[in-house]
């Protein structure tokens, strides 16, 4: 492979060769990765088309500043390289599979008398991994089968030959109940142990037929040697394996090593079902959702999902069954659309899964959307608001005995907390414990800033408090000339009374109402946010007061010490050298002297 870089004006000079192209913007951020049978034709199509191109594609083309290409031998190689680059960089204009799960594997360790156990961490040097498994249940079913068929050890002992020879270990309960043959005390040789492990590997790969053949041969040999008890045990294992296969069977066993990938779509999303089938048994079934980025075709979305899922589940399929006609076949990717027979039944089953997944997603989205809309619409009705309150801001003050007065503002968008919009306020213009004046200050500061920055005002302001705090907030809005442009209410804690400006009597919302619960949640969140901030400020100031009582330590030095050591206790435990590194030698000596002087105090 070779890579080259081109300016945006040089796209016509690209080679007529298979490869991968990467688009970078002015800040040299990778924004898109694509593959092509002919780089020249594919890349030129982005810049030469004036019609039939959607807005997102035009927006992306306007961002392109530099093009980088990598030549490969075939379109299939380009497809694999494209997948790796997207997985690594996740460019903003590429299709991304919506799946943040970490899937489990079964690991056969690289050690004497290897073990088999489940893990979610993929560290290749530890041994051989099988999977990933789409569900923990499917993985445990296979693991349970292997442990019933074979005597694979489960202990974590280091079974190096010299440790076994030295007699360092004793057999455990697993040996006494027949689940282990005691390799730790030399009762089973490693070569004999590895024969069982090889059979387990065939089962993990889905090759149940190999394991069945070996069991049949063993059973025949035991019978010929008149070892009927061993023959019976082997027959029981064979029956167990056949029972497991019968449960897993969904198709004709002649369908030996196939992937199935089907797609259903709506305007913005695509839903893909992927299945791996070996000897008629379903090994993996996985649904994924894709969001169209640049008006990609059904074929592009299917191939993109297929390559990533095959990579994720380590597929070695001979053929992939699909449910759509592939107009542009990719050499090296064996796709087949069956019309009749067992393979068509597999396609029907896969499409059924994809449609169910689509319906499930739509239902979930609809339920969430309906509930969200229902609550804020109910709030609009209960408070007789002119607009749906999809943007609510709530204020609360916090001070204890007039010390360290602070305030908070929390923001809810569409009935959900918008944490990035939360704000803390130090009270600057008010002296002493005056909640009303503090409320006037913070409400004024908040909306003065929004007006200056040209940002949208909320559809509802909530003040944590009764008529006094509400009047103070109204005063701030009047000074800014925005009173009446957005509804404002106060909510008193004791009886959950709702006050409107100018009204002598409060209104009461049904205690069981979802709209009241939303207001309570917003109010409680503002209170929590204010209290947390107040504690932090109070604690910091308390630490500062302790430190500034020490001769030679002023507020700046105290702040520097607290920033570095985080607490007075850690400062008191620091050595002179550690203190000197932060505040200098002379001040460190003063601090050490003070500590020594007050040691017994």
Automatic annotation (TrEMBL):
GO terms for molecular function: DNA binding; excinuclease ABC activity. Residues 16-95 form the GIY-YIG domain. SUPFAM superfamilies: C-terminal UvrC-binding domain of UvrB (SSF46600), GIY-YIG endonuclease (SSF82771), RuvA domain 2-like (SSF47781). Residues 289-477 form the UvrC family homology region profile domain. Interacts with UvrB in an incision complex. The UvrABC repair system catalyzes the recognition and processing of DNA lesions. UvrC both incises the 5' and 3' sides of the lesion. The N-terminal half is responsible for the 3' incision and the C-terminal half is responsible for the 5' incision. GO terms for cellular component: cytoplasm; excinuclease repair complex. One of its GO terms (biological process) is SOS response. InterPro entries: GIY-YIG_endonuc, GIY-YIG_endonuc_sf, GIY-YIG_UvrC_Cho, Hlx-hairpin-Hlx_DNA-bd_motif, RuvA_2-like, UVR_dom_sf, UvrABC_protein_C, UvrC. Keywords: Cytoplasm, DNA damage, DNA excision, DNA repair, Excision nuclease, SOS response. It comes from Algoriphagus faecimaris. CDD domains: GIY-YIG_UvrC_Cho. It is found in: Cytoplasm. Its main location: cytoplasm. This is UvrABC system protein C. PROSITE patterns: GIY_YIG, UVRC. PANTHER family: UVRABC SYSTEM PROTEIN C, UVRC/OXIDOREDUCTASE. It holds the Pfam family UvrC_RNaseH. Belongs to the UvrC family.
């Amino acid at each position: 492979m070779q890579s080259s870089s081109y300016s945006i004006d040089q796209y016509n000079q690209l080679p007529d060769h298979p490869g991968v192209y990467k688009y970078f913007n002015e800040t040299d951020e990778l924004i898109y990765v694509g593959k092509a049978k002919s780089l020249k034709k594919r890349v030129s199509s982005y810049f030469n088309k004036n019609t039939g191109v959607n807005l997102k594609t035009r927006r992306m083309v306007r961002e392109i500043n530099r093009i980088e290409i990598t030549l490969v031998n075939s379109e299939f190689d380009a497809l694999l390289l494209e997948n790796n680059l997207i997985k690594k960089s996740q460019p903003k204009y590429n299709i991304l599979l919506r799946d943040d799960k970490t899937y489990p594997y079964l690991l056969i360790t690289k050690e004497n008398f290897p073990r088999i156990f489940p893990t979610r961490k993929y560290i290749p040097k530890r041994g051989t991994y099988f999977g990933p498994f789409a569900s923990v249940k499917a993985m445990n079913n296979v693991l349970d089968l292997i442990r019933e068929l074979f005597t694979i050890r489960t202990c974590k002992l280091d079974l190096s030959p010299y440790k076994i020879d030295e007699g360092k270990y004793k057999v455990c309960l697993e040996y006494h109940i027949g689940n282990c043959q005691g390799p730790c005390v030399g009762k089973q040789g490693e070569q004999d142990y590895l024969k069982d492990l090889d059979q387990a590997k065939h089962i993990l790969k889905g090759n149940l037929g190999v394991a069945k053949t070996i069991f049949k041969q063993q059973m025949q040999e035991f019978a010929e040697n008149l070892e009927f008890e061993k023959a019976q045990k082997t027959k029981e294992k064979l029956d167990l394996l056949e029972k497991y296969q019968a449960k897993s069977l969904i198709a004709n066993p002649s369908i030996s090593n196939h992937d199935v990938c089907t797609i259903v779509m709506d305007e913005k999303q695509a839903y893909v079902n992927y299945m791996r089938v070996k000897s008629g048994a379903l090994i993996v079934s996985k649904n994924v959702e894709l969001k169209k980025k640049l008006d990609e075709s059904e074929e592009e979305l299917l191939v993109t999902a297929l390559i990533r899922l095959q990579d994720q589940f380590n597929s070695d399929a001979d053929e992939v069954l699909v449910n759509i006609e592939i107009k542009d076949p990719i050499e090296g990717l064996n796709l087949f659309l069956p019309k009749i027979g067992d393979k068509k039944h597999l396609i029907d089953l896969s499409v059924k899964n994809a449609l169910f997944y689509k319906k499930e997603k739509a239902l979930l989205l609809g339920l969430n959307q309906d509930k969200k809309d229902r609550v804020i619409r109910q709030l609009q009705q209960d408070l007789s608001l002119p607009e749906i309150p999809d943007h609510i801001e709530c204020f609360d003050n916090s001070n204890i005995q007039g010390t360290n007065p602070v305030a908070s503002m929390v923001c809810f968008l569409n009935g959900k907390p918008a944490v990035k919009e939360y704000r803390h306020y130090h009270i600057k213009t008010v002296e002493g414990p005056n909640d009303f004046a503090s409320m006037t200050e913070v409400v004024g500061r908040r909306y003065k800033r929004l007006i200056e920055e040209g940002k949208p005002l909320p559809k509802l302001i909530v003040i944590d408090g009764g008529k006094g705090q509400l009047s103070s907030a109204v005063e701030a809005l009047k000074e800014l000339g925005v009173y009446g442009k957005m509804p404002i209410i106060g909510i008193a804690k004791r009886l959950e009374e709702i006050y409107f400006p100018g009204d002598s009597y409060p209104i009461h919302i049904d205690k069981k109402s979802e709209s009241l619960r939303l207001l309570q949640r917003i109010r409680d969140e503002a209170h929590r946010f204010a209290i947390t901030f107040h504690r932090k400020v109070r604690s910091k100031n308390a630490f500062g007061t302790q430190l500034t009582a020490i001769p030679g330590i002023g507020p700046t030095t105290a702040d520097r010490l607290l920033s570095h050591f985080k607490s007075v206790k850690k400062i008191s435990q620091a050595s002179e050298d550690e203190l000197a590194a932060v505040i200098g030698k002379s001040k460190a000596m003063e601090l050490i002297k003070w500590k020594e002087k007050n040691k017994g105090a």
